[in-house]
Description:
The chain has helices spanning 5-15, 36-41, 50-58; strands at residues 23-25, 28-30, 69-74, 87-94, 97-104, 110-116, 119-128, 136-145, 151-152, 157-165, 175-183, 188-196, 205-212, 214-224, 227-231, 236-237, 246-249, 254-260, 265-266, 271-277, 284-291, 300-306, 313-318, 328-335, 341-348, 352-353, 357-358, 364-369, 384-391, 408-415, 420-425, 431-437, 446-447, 451-455. The chain is mainly beta and 456 residues long. It folds into three domains: 1-252, no CATH class; 254-348, Immunoglobulin-like (Sandwich), CATH 2.60.40.2950; 352-455, Immunoglobulin-like (Sandwich), CATH 2.60.40.1940. Strands 4, 5, 7, 8, 11, 12, 14, 15, 16, 18, 20 and 23 form a twelve-stranded antiparallel β-sheet that branches. β14 (214-224) and β15 (227-231) form a beta hairpin. Mean pLDDT is 87; it is low at 15-26 and 39-62.
Amino acid sequence: MKHRSLLTTILALLLVFLLAGTAQAAGFRHHVAGGGPAAAHRVSPGLAAAHARLAASLNPLNVLSVGTAVLNGHVYDRWLSPMDGFTVDWWAPVSGVWSNGEVVTAAGGAYSFTDADAASGQGELWVFSPSSSNGFIYERYGASWLDPGPTTFDFQAGTVPLTAYRGGPWSTWSECWFAFDGSDAQTSVWSMQYVDAPFTSASPVDYAGNVMAGSYTSGSVNFWGDEGMEFSPPSSVSAGGTASGVTIDEANASRTGIASPWWASGKPGTSVKVALGNFPAGWTVDFSGYSDWPPSAPTKTFWPTTTTGVANQLRTLTVPTTATPGYMYWIGEQHDGGLLYLETPFQVASLKPSAATIRRGASVTLTGVIPTRGHLGSTAGLRKTVVLYKRTTSAGQPLSYSSPKGWTKVASFMASGLGKYSFKQRPSRTTYYIVRYPGDAWYWGAFTSVIHVTVR
């Protein structure tokens, strides 16, 4: 599958909202996130405003279009009814930087741009449904248009019946995303259909999906951001027609998670073991990572891995030392040659001593930052009570949140709305410390990394 930076980014933005609920599988935990900075800064649980994060991350210099190309067309749903109120974005690389524009479809589903930059085989047009329930996205990529134009791109769709069976260890999902990749006579095309499926509803989940008209070669579905699978799509979808259906079983899905550290949390620079579960053998999986904050944080590319089969497979990666404490660091896995993209979150939380080595009788100040709901940059969020623990022998994170075996509670104290805390200690001997922090609507409760202060 061709690398497409905008598509990879939008998948990352949307899949973060499939990380909700609780579940666990052998070998690694299904760590789940709520809204968080990703939600606040990227997209709502539906599809509205997904392009905002795109603009912030891919156009950080706020480069304005200087072109005069005219792009126009109409947007239709699977019944060929014109859709007003849909957001349409164009994107084109100019001197290595993405420029873009945005309009909302008028009555009759019409859209028009008069200031687009020319694109030669790299232009992209995105259509976002405003619905927060059963919404969808259309995309044209690999597009060309001239300045001044005009160039017309219509978005028409057909119906693809979708059937999903719940199964496997993480079957409590209440929404899923189906993605389709292919082409038509003008460009490559990509469609994503969101399916709202409350867990109380019957299984299987059935839905008639909106999929752009075209010929399709690959498809994928995500039940969670860290669980999904590929499928063979209908070879052809006609405008206004009904294509052959897609039936999938979650029990066959691939899954990813962080096996170590146990709480999927810790300091920048932490070595983590990422688990790949139930992946077909022989896939090449590309790994990448990015921080929730700042919005312009760069994406890091890690070495790819070749999968060995359905048994859990571990890959060791290092969270960059530049990852921002108090936020998520997301590790993504993209099937190279396929459409499946999964990602798993790691909560970055810091704990530092004012001195690594002190004299007997001296004091040391422990400081750090923990994740907290509502904290975005300089905007304060929820204040939390954190707990400091200590011990005199080396250990990793405890497995129990409520009763950390082998650790002694030192004190409870308040972290600020920026997630910052500070506490002074006077250890009589070399001591190991760890801080526990509570969960909230954005983050799960977890621990910092362990640090130690040497007393001489």
